[in-house]
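User: For my dataset I need records formatted as: sequence, then structure tokens, nothing else. Please produce one.
Assistant:
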Amino acid sequence: MLTLFFVNDLPKVVGSGYEFGGEDAGHAIRVLRMSTGTIFNLSDGNGSWAQVQVLTVAKKSMQVKVLETGHQDPL
């Protein structure tokens, strides 16, 4: 199962880059030790999601590439 983080500005274009920052990114870097190549999910909390892969890691943010997007209706 992939790690999931919630973001307000969910990227929706496959192949596009996105800067994942803030407290959640800091947690992913320091605690979960995510590094280049790691794949995880982002969601807007309203059913839309994006699977992303880490391209670069900084101290408190990471640049990711969108691999796949979708929408999950409530069950």
